[in-house]
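Budget justification aside, the reviewers requested a transparent look at the raw inputs and outputs of the sequence design task funded under Objective 1. We therefore reproduce one unedited record. The lines immediately below are the C-alpha cells for a 481-residue chain.
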C-alpha cells in the first residue's frame, strides 16, 4: 500500500508542536509494516533544507487565483528519516524559516495543496491513500472529489487526522477564486458559519476521520471551536487512535542529547547525573524535587495559570522544591514567568524559546512534569516523560486521560480534574509528599504515599509501551476499510 502523508510539519524538518512529531514517526513505522509511506510538505528555508542533499523530481507551475507560481518538488536523497521525504518549493511562499505566522498563510497553504495535487495527478500510477493532517491540508479531500483538474484523483481515498480542532484555517469567500474550478453548487461543502473553513470541509469530504486519542474523539463533539455539531454528525466515519512516540528517538539508553544515558535498572543514578548537570546550568539545587513544564505558553496548555501556581508552590515549599520552565508563547505569560526569577532566585528558572536538546535533558533530569491543559488532543510530552522515568502531573482530559492513571487508582501519575490554580497546587503538594516520603533520610522511617515509591514508579513507567507499532497498524486497518 502506498500512503502519501500531507502535513505542514514533520520532525526534524520543521516542528512547532505534536503534529511534527507524529508525521515524523508514523510513516517510518508504516514502512516497517511493509508499506510505502511518504511525506510531502512545504520546503521552508531552514537548517534541514540547507544541510541535506536533495534532487529535483518535478518542475511545474501552480495557479492560485490570477497568478502562476513556479513549483519545484525536491526529494531527500538518502532516506535518512526512514521514509521518502518530498519538499514543495513554491516561489514567493516558502522561502522563509517559520512555519506559521505570516499574513499570507492562507495563500501559502492553498498553493501547497494545489501544487501537490497537480504533481500527483501527473503520476502514471495512483497512490492508495492520501492522508491529510490538520487544516493546512484540509481542502485536499474536497479538491480531489470535486475540482475538475483533479478528476483523475477522484477515487483515491482521503483520510483526515485532526490533531487540534481549535485551529481551522477559516478565510473569506473573497478568496474562493484561489480554489481550482468546481461546480459552484458544491460550495456548501466548503462553508461553515459564513466562511470557507478548510477543517470543516475536510470533515465533510474525507472518507475517514481520525483523532489522536479516543477521549479527544468524544470531547470534540461537545467542544471544538464551533464544529461540535458537524463532528457529531460525522461520528460514524470517525475513529480515535492514540498517538505513539518514536522509541528510536526517545530512548534514555541511547539518546545522544543526554549527559548520561541510563536504563530501567539504573534509572535513579542516571536521572541524578542528568539532574545535577541541568541544575548546575540553571542555578538550582539538585537535592530537591525538580518540577518542570515544557511546551507552548498559551491558554489551551493552561500556561496562563503557571505564574500563580509556581508563586504559591515556591512560597508553600520554600527552599524545598525547584522549578524549571522551557517554552514560548503569549508575551504576557512569558513576562510573568520571567519576573519570578527575581522573586525566587535559586529555586526557579525559565528558558524562553524552544531547544530540542534541552527538552531531552529536562525529561531525563526532572522528577515531575506538569501538564495542566485545558485542551490536549493527545499530548506527547507525558509519553516522553514516562519513557524517561519522569512522573507526569496531568489534568484528566483528552489523551492525558487515556495515558496517565493516578497513583490513588493503582496507577503511576498524579491527576487532577480542573485547569485551576487550586487543583494544580494540590497536585504539586501530592507530588512533593510522594517524593519526600520516598527519599531516604537517616533516622527516619518512610511510609510511601499510597504504597508507592518514586523508584518503583520510575521503573514501571519506563517499561510502558507507547511506541508507534500498534497505532501504525490501526491506521493501516482504517486505510483498508
Amino acid at each position: 500500500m502506498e500512503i502519501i502523508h500531507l502535513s505542514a510539519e514533520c520532525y526534524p524538518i520543521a516542528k512547532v508542536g505534536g503534529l511534527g512529531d507524529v508525521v515524523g514517526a508514523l510513516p517510518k513505522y508504516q514502512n516497517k509494516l511493509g508499506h510505502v509511506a511518504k511525506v510531502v510538505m512545504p520546503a521552508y528555508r531552514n537548517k534541514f533544507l540547507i544541510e541535506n542533499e536533495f534532487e529535483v523530481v518535478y518542475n511545474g507551475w501552480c495557479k492560485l487565483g490570477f497568478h502562476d507560481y513556479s513549483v519545484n518538488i525536491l526529494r531527500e536523497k538518502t532516506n535518512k528519516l526512514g521514509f521518502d521525504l518530498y519538499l514543495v518549493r513554491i516561489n514567493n511562499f516558502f522561502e522563509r524559516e517559520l512555519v506559521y505566522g505570516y499574513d499570507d498563510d492562507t495563500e501559502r497553504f492553498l498553493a501547497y495543496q494545489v501544487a501537490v495535487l497537480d504533481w500527483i495527478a501527473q503520476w502514471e500510477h495512483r497512490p492508495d491513500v492520501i492522508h491529510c493532517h490538520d487544516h493546512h491540508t484540509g481542502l485536499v479531500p474536497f479538491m480531489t472529489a470535486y475540482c475538475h483538474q483533479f478528476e483523475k484523483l477522484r477515487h483515491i481515498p482521503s483520510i483526515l487526522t485532526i490533531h487540534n480542532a481549535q485551529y481551522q484555517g477559516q478565510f473569506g469567500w473573497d478568496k474562493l477564486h484561489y480554489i481550482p474550478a468546481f461546480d459552484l453548487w458544491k460550495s456548501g461543502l466548503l462553508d461553515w458559519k459564513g466562511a470557507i473553513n478548510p477543517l470543516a470541509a475536510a470533515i465533510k469530504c474525507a472518507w475517514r476521520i481520525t483523532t489522536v486519542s479516543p477521549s479527544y474523539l468524544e470531547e470534540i463533539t461537545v467542544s471544538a471551536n464551533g464544529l461540535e455539531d458537524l463532528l457529531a454528525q460525522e461520528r460514524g466515519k470517525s475513529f480515535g487512535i492514540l498517538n505513539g512516540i518514536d522509541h528510536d528517538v526517545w530512548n534514555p539508553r541511547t539518546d545522544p542529547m543526554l549527559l548520561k544515558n541510563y536504563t530501567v535498572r539504573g534509572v535513579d543514578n542516571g536521572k541524578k547525573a542528568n539532574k545535577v548537570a541541568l541544575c548546575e546550568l540553571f542555578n538550582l539545587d539538585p537535592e530537591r524535587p525538580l518540577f518542570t513544564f515544557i511546551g507552548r505558553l498559551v491558554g489551551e496548555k493552561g500556561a496562563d495559570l503557571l505564574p500563580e501556581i509556581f508563586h504559591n508552590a515556591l512560597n508553600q515549599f520554600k527552599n524545598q522544591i525547584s522549578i524549571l520552565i522551557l517554552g514560548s508563547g503569549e508575551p504576557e505569560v512569558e513576562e510573568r514567568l520571567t519576573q519570578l526569577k527575581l522573586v525566587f532566585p535559586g529555586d526557579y528558572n525559565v528558558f524562553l524559546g524552544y531547544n530540542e536538546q534541552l527538552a531531552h535533558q529536562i525529561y531525563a533530569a526532572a522528577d515531575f512534569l506538569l501538564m495542566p491543559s485545558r485542551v490536549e488532543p493527545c499530548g506527547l510530552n507525558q509519553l516522553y516523560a514516562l519513557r524517561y522515568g519522569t512522573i507526569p502531573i496531568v489534568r484528566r482530559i483528552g489523551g492525558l486521560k487515556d495515558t496517565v492513571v493516578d497513583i490513588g487508582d493503582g496507577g503511576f501519575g498524579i491527576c487532577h480534574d480542573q485547569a485551576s490554580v487550586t487543583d494544580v497546587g494540590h497536585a504539586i503538594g501530592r507530588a512533593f509528599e510522594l517524593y519526600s516520603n520516598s527519599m531516604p533520610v537517616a533516622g527516619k522511617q518512610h511510609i510511601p504515599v499510597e504504597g508507592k515509591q518514586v523508584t518503583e514508579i520510575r521503573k514501571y513507567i519506563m517499561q510502558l509501551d507507547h511506541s508507534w507499532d500498534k497505532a501504525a497498524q490501526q491506521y493501516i486497518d482504517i486505510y483498508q476499510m
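The chain has two domains: 2-244+470-479, 267-465. DSSP finds 16 helices and 17 strands in the chain. Computational costs for records of this kind are itemized in the attached budget.
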